[in-house]
Inverse folding.
């Protein structure tokens, strides 16, 4: 088989926020290095583009790194590695400023200084924003800035299929050049995975079609553990039917959530008392954390207090009292989305919303320096589990994570590549041939199972068993279904035998990744017999620090299945406490001060 | 509101086909069904070999531009219900760009033009983050902000007759992006970009048809950006002429 081989110093897989930031960092640190940036889409298509509300970073005088730290650690239900959170909160603002210096059009105060807005679970306003297109502007700013650096060689529409490993060290990647359908092999001194999350394993999600967990699966197949995979964030406000994201900034600006009776139901779930419309209060009501809000919806739906729309069950997100001018200034994209996709103008009517799968808190295990347990392999962004988000991510922390840890990954990989050098070519040829033969067999798969049927069954099973609330019984059923689906995947039938832009073939590769990642999620969720953050078990409703104040590590067993073991959480200065919001959240804070 | 509509799609697979050909499908639709949904339905149910690009399905990633009944549109933001009275809906790859396969166009020429205009913030002296933010009032931001909304979907290139005639013309998105940075109070790169904007494939090649602005799914108004660029180009020309006449060597 004709496989094209080439040598570079660093390969970065993924051209979203983390991948681009890593590329820029590596190029700045070591201008002589050859940096290959591979992405299955043009970088500006990456799903960072769809992030709306904002990007965290302490900037106000009455705010502090410690406050951001406390919000993040308690928001994550104490499953965050506190050394990582400390590093993060100390570097988020400088990264936001760097983006500003690179041209990001952050929204401003009248005097020209950076403006910030309130966000869920954050005690003090520290969410930088560019109207409600924050991810879009960050991504385009990074992409455009990356064009300055000649050492960043883009390989747009290259679909990465495998990590190349030699003597226990990651030494490159294999990919399919989508335009030609040929296999290519890139040997490198260091590899960074920045491939994003895996939200598409759920049927209803806010994610783009490309968010299929490819990097997680590639790492998993090389024996790298996936950590904390049971923690999947449901965003409380997606559009019913499509799952399209309606930003938390709607609530940061003062939007209200109402059930079918017009009642602000969040006050019944420990988030009250009710705050006056037009006066949102941080960590109260609509500004509670995402896990709590999604769980409240689940209860309201069970009690029959949600709207039955033709797109499914929904509650109402009411922005009308903000007025047209404010909506146009702060939430123009939301107005565009609601008008286009549910025919609602938020200036005159509430937007129907429901929780939808949004973010993968877990991912490829890394240390605080973004290094995975496989030497030479680094990971950053949503595909990674660096220990920042714990059991529940706070909105606006992940955009900042892209820059903070994307930079670290770029610098670390550059140092590693300089020390490691490029590996010996001959040993990788056989490996590449073997990999390619497997993908070629898939391209010619002639079984009788349909790709779409397996994909849809996967999404439904995850929704049913590994959704907002879980139980051992339902999770076991999902695990069994996933095993069946994996079996069916072996009998896949594809109809397109061509090479040029064969998206059926690529979708089949993605589906294989999704099945592996979903399995890690479900097995870890089955193993965690407690309720914490986004992981709520109906058969184990309490948090159990005795047994589960630890990260889960899902590993690939020899038979391809998952085994789960546990790793201690790094706790430095905030011992586990109870997590309270609304009025109940005031008491511990007072005690802390006293 | 629902029904069924004939969707005719241009196919071209370079390994098998000598020339493009047409394939028709009957696609069921409801009020929410977009052209992208229709394509996904066809791929899942009718013919898995149909290729097209898509991702976010919320009109922000810019992947799914296609010609819908001869009009450049985002597939995810175009709904079948609007064509309920038409006999059929006809899908082709974007005009003025080479076809790679089926509905997948080669957008590299657009990206090359975008790179040409150096679309990054340029400062003579780079500041460290510790220096804090460069102040920019909302009024200053408003001068360029709408030009920063371009999602690089390429619809304006499919709409531009000038780009169709002369692929070297930098085109609407690239010229808009240049203008976006030129108008940014923080930027000092105008001089570096001017040769491209003033050059024969820059703003003066635009014949101001304005169709680019009509088809822009994000209301960026590239035609306005290019026209402002012409004014700036004139000013730049006058300044340089003045310097030349004055005898300065900095022209």
């Amino acid at each position: 088989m004709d496989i094209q081989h080439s040598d570079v110093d660093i390969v970065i897989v993924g051209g979203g926020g983390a991948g681009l930031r890593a590329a820029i960092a590596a190029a700045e640190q070591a201008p002589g290095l050859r940096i290959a940036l591979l992405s299955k889409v043009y970088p500006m298509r990456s799903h960072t583009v769809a992030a709306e509300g904002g990007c965290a970073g302490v900037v106000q005088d009455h705010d502090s790194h410690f406050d951001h730290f406390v919000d993040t650690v308690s928001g994550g239900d104490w499953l965050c590695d506190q050394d990582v959170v400390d590093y993060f909160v100390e570097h988020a603002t400088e990264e936001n400023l760097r983006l500003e210096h690179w041209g990001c059009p952050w929204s401003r105060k009248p005097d020209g200084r950076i403006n910030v807005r309130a966000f869920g679970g954050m005690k003090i306003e520290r969410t930088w924003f560019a109207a409600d297109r924050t991810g879009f502007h960050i991504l385009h700013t990074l992409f455009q800035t990356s064009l300055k650096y000649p050492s960043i060689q883009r390989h747009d529409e290259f679909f990465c299929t495998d990590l190349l490993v030699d003597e226990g060290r990651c030494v490159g990647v294999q990919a399919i050049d989508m335009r030609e359908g040929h296999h290519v092999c890139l040997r490198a001194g260091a590899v960074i995975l920045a491939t994003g999350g895996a939200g598409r394993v759920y049927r209803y999600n806010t994610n783009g079609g490309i968010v299929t967990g490819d990097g997680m699966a590639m790492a998993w197949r090389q024996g790298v553990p996936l950590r904390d995979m049971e923690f999947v964030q449901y965003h409380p406000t997606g559009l019913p039917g499509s799952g399209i994201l309606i930003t938390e900034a709607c609530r940061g600006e003062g939007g209200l959530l109402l059930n079918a009776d017009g009642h602000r139901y969040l006050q019944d779930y420990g988030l009250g008392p009710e705050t006056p419309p037009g006066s949102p209060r941080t960590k109260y009501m609509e500004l509670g954390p995402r896990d709590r809000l999604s769980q409240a919806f689940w209860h309201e739906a069970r009690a029959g207090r949600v709207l039955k729309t033709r797109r499914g069950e929904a509650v109402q997100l009411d922005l009308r009292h903000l007025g047209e001018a404010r909506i146009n200034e702060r939430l123009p994209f939301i107005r565009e989305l609601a008008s286009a996709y549910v025919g609602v103008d938020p200036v005159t009517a509430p937007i129907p919303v429901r929780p939808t799968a949004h973010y993968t808190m877990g991912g490829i295990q890394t240390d605080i320096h973004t290094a995975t347990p496989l030497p030479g392999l680094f990971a950053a962004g949503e595909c990674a589990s660096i220990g920042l988000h714990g059991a529940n991510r706070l909105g606006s922390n992940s955009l900042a994570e892209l820059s903070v840890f994307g930079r670290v990954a770029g610098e670390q990989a550059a140092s590693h590549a300089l020390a490691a050098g490029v590996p010996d070519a001959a040993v990788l040829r056989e490996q590449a041939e073997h990999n390619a033969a497997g993908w070629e067999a898939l391209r010619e798969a002639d079984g009788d199972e349909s790709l779409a049927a397996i994909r849809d069954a996967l999404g439904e099973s995850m929704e049913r068993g590994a959704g907002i609330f879980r139980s051992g019984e339902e999770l076991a059923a999902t695990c069994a279904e996933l095993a069946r689906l994996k079996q069916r995947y072996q009998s896949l039938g594809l109809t397109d035998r061509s090479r040029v832009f064969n998206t059926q073939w690529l979708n089949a590769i993605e589906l294989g990744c999704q099945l592996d990642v979903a399995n890690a999620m479900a097995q870890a969720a089955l193993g965690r017999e407690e309720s914490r953050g986004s992981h709520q078990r109906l058969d184990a409703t309490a948090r159990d620090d005795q047994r589960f104040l630890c990260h889960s590590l899902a590993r690939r067993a020899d038979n391809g299945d998952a085994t789960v073991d546990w790793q201690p959480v790094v706790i430095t200065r905030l011992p586990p406490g109870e997590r309270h919001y609304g009025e109940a959240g005031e008491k511990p804070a007072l005690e802390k001060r006293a | 509101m629902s029904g069924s509509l004939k969707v005719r799609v241009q196919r071209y697979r370079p390994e098998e086909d000598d020339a493009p050909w047409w394939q028709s499908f009957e696609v069921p639709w409801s009020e929410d069904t977009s052209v992208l949904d229709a394509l996904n339905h066809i791929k899942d149910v009718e013919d898995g070999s149909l290729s097209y690009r898509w991702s976010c399905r919320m009109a922000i990633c810019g992947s799914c531009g296609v010609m819908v009944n001869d009009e450049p549109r985002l597939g995810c933001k175009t709904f079948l219900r609007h064509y309920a009275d038409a006999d059929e809906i006809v899908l082709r790859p974007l005009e003025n760009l080479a076809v790679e396969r089926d509905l997948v166009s080669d957008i590299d020429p657009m990206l090359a033009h975008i790179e040409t205009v150096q679309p990054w913030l340029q400062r003579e002296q780079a500041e460290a983050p510790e220096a804090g933010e460069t102040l920019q009032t909302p009024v200053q931001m408003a001068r360029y902000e709408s030009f920063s909304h371009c999602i690089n979907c390429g619809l304006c290139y499919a709409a531009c007759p000038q780009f169709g005639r002369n692929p070297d013309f930098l085109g609407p998105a690239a010229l808009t992006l240049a203008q976006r940075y030129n108008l940014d109070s923080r930027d000092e790169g105008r001089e570096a970009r001017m040769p491209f904007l003033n050059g024969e494939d820059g703003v003066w090649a635009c014949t101001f048809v304005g169709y680019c602005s009509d088809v822009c799914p994000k209301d960026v108004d590239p035609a306005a950006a290019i026209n402002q660029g012409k004014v700036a180009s004139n000013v730049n020309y006058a300044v340089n002429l003045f310097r030349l006449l004055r005898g300065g060597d900095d022209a």
Notes: The domain at 432-568 of chain A is CATH 1.20.58.100 (Methane Monooxygenase Hydroxylase; Chain G, domain 1). Residues 367 and 386 of chain A are 6 Å apart (CA to CA).
